[in-house]
Amino acid sequence: MLLTIFLAIVFCAAISLMLLSAVAFIQDTRFFSSAPKEAQAVLKPRENELFYGARIIGWTLMNFSVLMILGVGVISIWDGFRSGYTFRQFFLRFVSVFTIYKLYDMTCFDWFLLCRSGFFQYYFPEVGPVYNGRKYGYNIKSQLLKLFVIFPAASALAAWICTLFQ
């Protein structure tokens, strides 16, 4: 269980690094496909880098975060095979990582970074009016759907596939 919590923390750190690299360094509007339509409509493409080398730093951090996410998956599965996990144990590991991540996403990204700190608005001031006055992020229904339906289903599928290869 301790490894599962550690893997969830690494997963959250990787997603945070990915967000930081996309918003602060790369600044490509294609990364904002999950933002509300109102925010996407006012986003202005950034032709110039924030500073010389910002995009190189951003893509390096992005690639590192992808490797961290893949590492979480590989270690989760490898340790499960090594420990002789059953379907239930694999499922609980996967759903725990996803649940911790989604709760982190909802509190840190949606509530704090989006609505309280002005992180996104600092780098993209044109979206400020879209987020002003919001008490919580824009996509609570989508977040809850992922938390209660999509992630448990994906965890069950991954656990089933893992048990096929034992």
Please specify the SSE layout and strand pairing.
Elements: H1 2-26, H2 37-42, H3 54-83, H4 87-117, H5 119-123, H6 128-131, H7 140-164
Helix pairs in contact: 1-3, 1-4, 4-7
How would you characterize the overall build of this protein?
Helix content is 76%, strand content 0%. It has seven helices and no strands. It is globular. The model has no long low-confidence stretch (mean pLDDT 88). The two termini are 20 Å apart. It is mostly helical and 166 residues long.
Output the keywords.
166 residues, mainly alpha, globular
- Cα end-to-end separation: 20 Å
Poorly predicted runs are: none
Largest sheet: none
- The ordered string of helix (H) and strand (E) elements is HHHHHHH
Number of strands: 0
Radius of gyration of CA atoms, rounded to a whole number: 18 Å
| Secondary structure: helix percent | over 70%
Shape: globular
Structural class comes to: mainly alpha
Query: For the residues shown, what is the average pLDDT?
Result: 88
- Approximate strand percentage: under 5%
- How many helices does DSSP assign? 7
Brief summary of the model shown:
By secondary structure, the protein is mostly helical. Helix content is 76%, strand content 0%.
